[in-house]
From TrEMBL:
Any one annotated GO CC term: membrane
Domain named Phospholipid/glycerol acyltransferase: residues: 73-191
Keywords from the UniProt entry: Acyltransferase, Transferase
Record's keyword annotation contains Transmembrane helix: no
PANTHER family: MONOACYLGLYCEROL_DIACYLGLYCEROL O-ACYLTRANSFERASE, TRANSMEMBRANE PROTEIN 68
A UniProt-annotated Pfam family: Acyltransferase
Signal sequence bounds: none
Protein name listed in UniProt: Glycerol acyltransferase
Record's keyword annotation contains Transferase: yes
Gene Ontology MF term list: acyltransferase activity
InterPro entries reported in the protein's UniProt record: Plipid/glycerol_acylTrfase (IPR002123)
Amino acid sequence: MGLASFLKSRLVPAELDQQIERIRKPIGSLGYDPWGYNNEAIKYGFSLTRQIYEKYFRVQASGVDNVPAEGPVLIIANHSGQLPLDGLLIGYALASRKENPRIPRAMIERFFPTVPWLGNLLNEMGAVLGDPVNCAKMLENNEAVIVFPEGVRGSGKLYRDRYQLKRFGNGFMHLAMKYNATIVPVGVVGCEETIPAIANIKPLANALGVPYVPVALPVILPAKVHLNFGPPMHFDNTEIPEEQVTERVEAVKAEISRLIDKGLSERKRLF
């Protein structure tokens, strides 16, 4: 047995290995797809994520079967917690479901790929630079794509603003309409408490070229996380004024707000 096989046998549970193998991805002869996704890398990544998901954040996911088994899908969620933990947990929830598992592609902020090692790791785990061109290509390939329309406005919000949704851009709706993609709204509760920030040091953030530098404890707190996947939403590609596109976006935002309220009412404690 070679070293790679030995490490895999020790680090990757057999059932997880089989689960990932069930999921079809258009991978080239070298084991990567055009955006850097790698089947073997995600097995190691999800082995660690499994422990975080089940034991640290004790995630309770409901409605995950609302994500269609195939075809283009936009998984639209609120963004929070300073780090992209919400995307990781949503991805694992979908990849680990018993019936028709999928590995969604997450649209990440532009500054993440500039972080040494992190950019390549995120790509191997299925993340892609969050721009409309990449998202369109993913939908053309019938991928499920995780999108956070709040962007850094959501992930960088302060604790006092927790669960207050920021402005949603209209870009995801235009893509959903063009590619006939199903929208599945998700309300994430718990990630706001993982790294509660009391302030943002904007001058330092500007100097470092990052969107925010939070004043927060240097630890990730073990908040219990609730993921509520809502019913699928469909929007036709009828040519309509931008104001009506915004109305559709607001309808998705309102559903996410409802799902957040559901999660807040369901949780019994923070940790």
